[in-house]
Amino acid sequence: IRYLAFNTDAPSVKSKAVRQAMAQVVNRSELVAKVYGTQAEPLFSLVPAAVTGHSNSFFNKYGDPNVTKAKSLLSKADITTPVKLTLHYTTDHYGSATKKEFEILQEQLNSSGLFDVSIQGTPWGQFRPAEQKGQYEVYGMGWFPDFPDPDNFLAPFLDKDNFLGSPYANSDIRNTLIPQSRREADRGSSSLTTIQNIVATDVPVIPLWQGKQYVAARDDVTGTAYALNSSSTLQLWELGRGVSG
């Protein structure tokens, strides 16, 4: 998955309304179509659509991109527009398309008239330490899970001592919902849904897109339709060798 993350202590994005307005403006479908084509699809939660427990929380809250709604969010919070900020990305860690991705994000946000966005690319060796030290207000990151469970898409970003070093802390998520979800055998539980809904409201991150998985096989290999389960785990035992047609 790929997402924008926020240093929620940074003055430019400390107000939740600014982050919500960005979530209201970003057009994931356009972003994916122009940069990644059929290799990716829009993502509306930290938990990907292929993983059990996914909830379309950002779409449920914001719907389609809408500048009027974003303007209203900022107006109600008495935020002066355009909001000036910089989006940071790494130039050499996620592929050459990252620059184009951030150029489109910049264009989407600036064309709304609500933001004055610049972008800055930095090599990973400098980018990662700077991000962890809180030097970036908004920055792009990716995530490849250790195992295909919703917890591995939530806890690393939201729990104490998280992967991003984010100052964002929600006591309900950390003290109640994450521990509770880990005790539940049902990976589509309400605890996981609630966590995703809180993230969509507080916007410590904005999910952007998820990559697609493919299984390529010769004609005489059978069972490929069943090789990936609902958690995107490769089930090799489903594969067999048949007769080519």
How would you describe this structure to a colleague?
This protein is an alpha/beta fold. The chain folds into 2 domains: 2-212, Dipeptide-binding Protein, domain 3, CATH 3.10.105.10; 216-245, no CATH class. The chain has helices at residues 16-25, 28-35, 57-62, 67-76, 97-111, 124-132, 151-158, 171-182, 190-202, and strands at residues 2-6, 40-42, 83-90, 115-122, 138-142, 205-211, 221-222, 240-241. Strands 2-6-1-5-3-4 form a 6-stranded mixed beta sheet. It has a two-stranded antiparallel ribbon with strand order 7-8. α5 (97-111) links the parallel β3 (83-90) and β4 (115-122). α1 packs antiparallel against α4 (67-76), α7 runs antiparallel to α8 and α8 runs antiparallel to α9. The longest helix is centred in the middle third of the chain and has 15 residues, at 97-111. The radius of gyration is 19 Å and the shape is globular. The mean pLDDT is 92.
Please describe the topology of this protein.
Blueprint: E1 2-6, H1 16-25, H2 28-35, E2 40-42, H3 57-62, H4 67-76, E3 83-90, H5 97-111, E4 115-122, H6 124-132, E5 138-142, H7 151-158, H8 171-182, H9 190-202, E6 205-211, E7 221-222, E8 240-241
Parallel strand pairs: 3-4, 3-5
Antiparallel strand pairs: 1-5, 1-6, 2-6, 7-8
Helix pairs in contact: 1-4, 2-5, 7-8, 8-9
